[in-house]
Amino acid sequence: MFGLQISRIRLKTPIKKVFWDKLIEMDDIQIQIDQYGLAQKEKTELLKVVYQTIDIRILDVILSSLPKEKHQSFLDKLTKTPQHHKLLKFLKENVEDIEDKIKDLTKEVKKEIIEKLQEH
Amino acid sequence: MSKKFRNLHQRIEKLKQESLVGLREKHKDATDYLQEKKFFLPKLREHSGRLLAGATLAGTLLLGGGRSAEPRLLQTSAEERVKLGLATSEEVKKIISEKISQLLPGAIGKISGGDRDKICQFLQEILGIDVCFNLEGNELNFSFGWMGYEQHLQRFPGDTLAGHDEEQVAGIAPGLGGWGYFAKSRQEMTQEEYLMEKYYVAVQTMYLPEWQIRTKELSKWYKHRKVIVVNPENGTACVAVVGDAGPAAWTGKQFGGSPEVMKRLDLHLGSRKGKVLLLFVNDPDGKVPLGPIDFNLKTGQPESV
User: Fold this and answer.
1) Residue numbers in A near B33 (CB within 8 A)
2) DSSP secondary-structure letter at A97?
3) pTM for the full predicted model
4) Cα separations in angstroms, B223 against A92, B27, B88
5) Which pairs from B54-58 meet CB under 8 Å and 24+ separation?
6) How many whole angstroms separate alpha carbon A82 and alpha carbon B174?
7) Closest alpha carbon to B156 in B195, B191, B188, B183
8) Which residues of B touch A (CB under 8 A)?
9) Cα B254 to Cα B242: distance, rounded to the nearest angstrom
10) Is A35 an 8 Å CB contact of chain B?
11) Which single residue of B1, B33, B123, B301 could bond B295 by disulfide (Cβ 3.0 to 4.6 Å)?
12) According to CATH, where is 2.40.40.10 located in chain B?
């Protein structure tokens, strides 16, 4: 059932991938957005700003966990090829449990986003 | 866009802006570094797409015609490579400086009809930004004039110089900018408002011919109006907003630039003034980021050439 609902969000401009996408589950947000009866373009725009918010918060948790002397090296890699799997390898080598940290943070932010969407 | 969408979008956008401010407060060095690289974090995913497009264009140039790849790329003019997103920052600045200097008059003031079109078309092609001298019937008395170094402006009630992260040597103006504060409070200041003060200009709205009779209407139109400032001496360019009114005619200057605008234009040392070209940016969707620009916004900036 969820699969059918999710498939209704077809993006005219596909959202590009970044390396942490494999750690985050977005179905619940997409299902939430799909409930508002928005036009296709509106869904896309809303989903974009949702992704942007999550991306900023994930970068925050990464920078908070990564030793400061590694920041520039990481940012150089991220801005060059944000989707590259070696970025996660780099983080795993330098931060303990970074995958769990990103997953936990994403859950928190998604909760905030869903609450914001449900505000009346 | 529907009212429902606008409402939902506004809520998430606010959360996004709060997240950006939080990130900047916690990781100032990192966010400054991204800014220096002209990397706008919310566009992280789009940035990735632009690089892929750039790579495709580069491949076409390198592989086409069955000739040796390197000479074919080198044979392409720098101006063409800028349009394809394949030129270096230095090449972009050099092209802008050479071309704009040819089109500008010797004396400050307005620019004649034919050259106006050429300047707009040129900047549009090189930087990928829609620029114009006259927007929605509005035009400044000067589009080419002297720009002086201004002080920081108070962004919210209680703002102090210590809170401004660059060019503190400029000091902070004791009074408010022509359009008041940029944000209601420090806590509510968005990334956009933070950048507005960082990259603001002062223009002489008070000397506009119709200012006295259309004050309210013109004031509203000019408030935070996006502009581009070009230093023809070195080809540097910076996108900014109108954040203050001035300078007074007796100063002999026609524009004022925030400390950061002047620094990006390399006009922050010595006499702290220089002749600049100032045009409106037609950006109804708010897609043109504030700050220095030395690449084509549409094709992106290559990592290496």
Assistant:
1) 71-72, 75
2) T
3) 0.60
4) 47, 31, 34
5) B54/B84, B54/B85, B54/B86, B54/B299, B54/B300, B54/B302, B57/B84, B57/B85, B57/B86, B57/B299, B58/B84, B58/B86, B58/B302
6) 43
7) B183
8) 1-2, 4-5, 8-9, 11-16, 19-20, 22-23, 26-27, 29-30, 33-34, 37, 39, 41-42, 44-49, 51, 303
9) 13
10) no
11) B301
12) 93-292
Using the Cβ of A11 and the Cβ atoms of chain B, whether some distance falls under 8 Å is answered with no
Percent of chain B at pLDDT > 90 equals: 58
Using CA atoms, how far apart are residues A75 and A71, in angstroms rounded to an integer? Answer: 6
Q: What does the alpha-carbon distance between residue A31 and residue A5 come to, in Å, rounded to a whole number?
A: 7
Eight-class DSSP state of A10: -
Residues B117-160 pLDDT 10s: 999 999 998 998 999 999 999 999 999 999 999 999 999 999 99
Any B CB within 8 A of A12 CB:
no
* A vs B: CB pairs below 8 A: 107
Neighbours of A14 (CB within 10 A): 10
A40 interface with B at CB cutoff 8 Å: no
Q: What percent of chain A has pLDDT over 70?
A: 88
Q: Which residue has the tokens 């709060």?
A: B18
Domain ranges of chain A: 19-119
Nearby residues of B203 by Cβ (< 8 Å), 6 or more positions away: B140, B222, B227, B242, B245, B246, B254, B255, B256, B278
Q: Return the bridge partners of B131, or none.
A: B281
- Give me the CATH code for the B93-292 domain, please: 2.40.40.10
Contact B254, B145 (CB under 8 A): yes
Whole-angstrom Cα distance, residue B178 to residue B153? Answer: 10
From B271, B276, B137, B302, select the one nearest B208 (Cα to Cα). Answer: B137
Q: How far is CA B159 from the centre of its chain?
A: 24
What CA–CA distance (Å, rounded) separates B207 from B253?
13
| ipTM of predicted complex | 0.89
Quick: pLDDT tens for A44-78: 889 989 999 999 999 999 999 999 999 999 999 99
From B196, B102, B201, select the one nearest B150 (Cα to Cα).
Answer: B201
Q: What is the pLDDT of residue B13?
A: 87
CA–CA dist B152, B161 (Å, integer): 8
